[in-house]
Amino acid sequence: MVDCIQFDTSSVHEQLKFQLSGSALGRELLSIFSLKNLTTVYQPIIDLNKQKVFGFEALTRGPENSPLYRPLHLFHVAEEHDCLFEMDWLARQIAIEKYHDFGNKELLFVNVTVNALMQSSHRRSMTLECLKSLGIDVSQVVIEITELQPVEDFELFVKSISYYREMGFKVAIDDLGGGYNGLRIWSEVKPDFVKIDKHFISNLASDRDKQRFIETICALAKGLKTKIIAEGVEDEATLKVLEKFGVDYVQGYLFKRPQSVPDINLEYKWSKSRFEALSREETAACLLKESPCVLPDVAVSDVTELFLKESCMDYLPVVNEDNEVVGMIWRRELMDLLAHRYGRDLHQRKPVNKVMDTAPIVIDVYTPLVELSRIVTDYEGGHRGDVFIITENAHYRGCGRFVDLLRVMTDLKVQSAQYANPLSGLPGNVPIQNSLKAFMQSDAEFMVIYADLDHFKPFNDHYSFEKGDDVIRLLSEILQKHVKNGKDFVGHIGGDDFMIISSRVKKYQQLCEAVLQEFRDGVLPFYDERDRQRGGIVSKDRDDQESFFPIMSLSLGVLIVAPGAFSHQQMLTSYATKAKKLAKSQGGNTFAVIHSDTISA
Questions:
Q1: Contacts of residue 151, Cβ cutoff 8 Å, sequence gap at least 6
Q2: What is the distance in angstroms between the CA of the first residue and the CA of the last residue of the chain?
Q3: What sign results for the dihedral spanned by CA atoms 368, 370, 372, 375?
Q4: How large is the average pLDDT for residues 233-258?
């Protein structure tokens, strides 16, 4: 039996029996249809901003120990036997029914092949009817378009996808860069999600060309208001590159292999965030205001009465019994809905989850204000009100207002300007000390990189202070380029001394080598041709004697700090200084490392 919803199962089975019985593979297909003998496994898709499961992709497997076990072969053989649509639908139906049995609330991504959409036997509304029969909201399902062959009738294809969207489905394009018409489909279908082909994710950390591709795709996606999903993430190095470029979601073996039961518990654990150690004034906690909420099954009429009674109430978060946010009711939208002809009669008996905004801005209470400001600015759901919802460990805490965020950010910018170095614009000594304190309180390993120029004073004396200032700005730009906004800190101690503070301890070698290489190349144009040829300049030393000084180099002292290794910042900075001096003693354009656990008490 292929479909319990719209197929005339007896006639379909007879048709398939006649159609498939002539070959061994055909009989294998017939057995699959007769017994519904497909297996669905689910792989989580992770929201990088929230660091938790956002959805699951349903992946189909044929019968074990069968030549049709592998999905690509299964669907190719089904197409060769003129039953691709039936196989495509059976796989989808089983995936949805099983997911419903598990009771997960995350999005479900179900694959639909382009070829199946173009089949003359394709029947509309079957997926929607299946969802309705199970009581699943259409907004929970994402139709993921997979290309097995080129699209021949593009106009028909776009119409088919548009029909899904009109029914309320979200749409994703699979394997961008690996299919036949990826960019054209993107431009014409305007999907909600685009999945980058695994080819571009493999060895991403060491492949500059692939990194440029990802960076370009992310910029394009932002302009087209599309969310990016990176598939095939198998190691932390790749994850860090994707985080750097602002990829929205990831999927891969690093987090979890496909499982028969959709499980939100991930195998990969992010290191404890230093954000939890930031002061209340630096995170969304300073904007938190307690706000009443309602359950999803509360009647629209009850919420309407509450709004009428409380004239100052403009919104109501909708929270389930587990205290998890599921949506928001906006006063203006609800009143407009009820004001329409027959609006009250049509909607007042419905539960609020049928009329709520299902995609309000939801952020964690520990989110830094800088990151929160970016989220609000980049939010593409359309601001229906002037508030966002604040959670802690995914549980509802209250709300915050955009206007308060703007005020606090303005105050912080003014305060930051007071302590900023006027030459580089980077935070000065007071913010550096505050950041060190926050990292020390985070109870997590971190590193301090002390950067200092070699032979800077002779260059200043020989070429002028103006050129010296330009070199300082160059180093500032290089350091800022190689740190991660919102998670790393870079400050300007003064003169030619800078400091990076970061939790990305495992990446210290990669970071140092990248900074040193870029500075080595970037500083050469500051010397004239003659000095470049001879490798340095002749200038006066500290004893006012003429000496030869090599072209400027950079020394990086790296201090790896274990949790609780230092009781106060002064001791920490003294060892960071020792690491810097050790690097300078090695001749420049190098780095030296000191581990706090090797320091004797």
A1: 114, 118, 157, 180, 181, 185
A2: 74
A3: negative
A4: 90
